Amino acid sequence: MPQHDSAFATALALILDLDPTLLGIVVLSLQVSLTAVLIAALLGLPLGAALALWRFPGRGVLVVALNALMGLPPVVAGLTVYLLLSRAGPLGELGLLFTPGAMVVAQVLLVLPIIAALTRQQVEELHLEYREQLRSLGLSRAHMIPTLLWDARLGLMTVVLAGFGRASAEVGAVMIVGGNIDGVTRVMTTAIVLETSKGNLPLALGLGIVLLGLVALVNAAAHLVGETARRRLG
């Protein structure tokens, strides 16, 4: 127990002193996760809204597939991206494997279904509520999308925050496609696994504390947005 107390104290010192190694890992983690969530949001928000508004053959299959992909195992996502980006894969010429770019692709694959599926649910509910008013204004379905997305913005912020939480806590997929290379693709989750296996508890604990703090901030932000939306709707 005293050894663990010492490791915890050293971990706090690393955080307070802004240890370069720890700081570099945290910064890279945020860069990868924020980029992935931004791309997933740009793709997922309009996709989810389109699925909510249009009816076409195969729509039900697509909705079920999106819902199923919300629980996509990270290692499967990582393996899929690895096969696509490996030298023998169709995108091997891009040279993205074992780079932060590959990690972004893997996280987008994990986050996109979450954002698209939850966006569809929220926009579909709003469309049912305001359908007659929107039609009376002469809006086409394509023009309804930005209107409904804007009206659902508070709820959708929670959706995006949920996606960021999934991305920032991911370990399996990013380890497969990133390789956990020191100073290149080592993010908080993969570094925690490595440093714990090496017995470097102070750094692993320091990263764990930062990751827990980040998750707490995301959940607090999601709760605040949800409460604001509820007060706004009365």
Task: Please supply descriptive tags for the structure shown above.
single chain; 234 residues; mainly alpha; MetI-like fold; 10 helices
Describe this structure in words.
This is ABC transporter permease subunit. It comes from Halomonas nitroreducens. Residues 26-222 form the ABC transmembrane type-1 domain. Keywords: Membrane, Transmembrane, Transmembrane helix. It is a multi-pass membrane protein. It is built from ten helices and no strands. It starts with a helix and ends with a helix. α5 (100-136) packs antiparallel against α7. The chain is 79% helix and 0% strand. It has helices at 2-16, 20-53, 59-69, 74-85, 100-136, 141-151, 153-168, 172-178, 188-198, 201-232. The protein has a domain at 28-186: MetI-like (MetI-like fold, Orthogonal Bundle). It is globular. The mean pLDDT is 87. It is an all-alpha fold and 234 residues long.
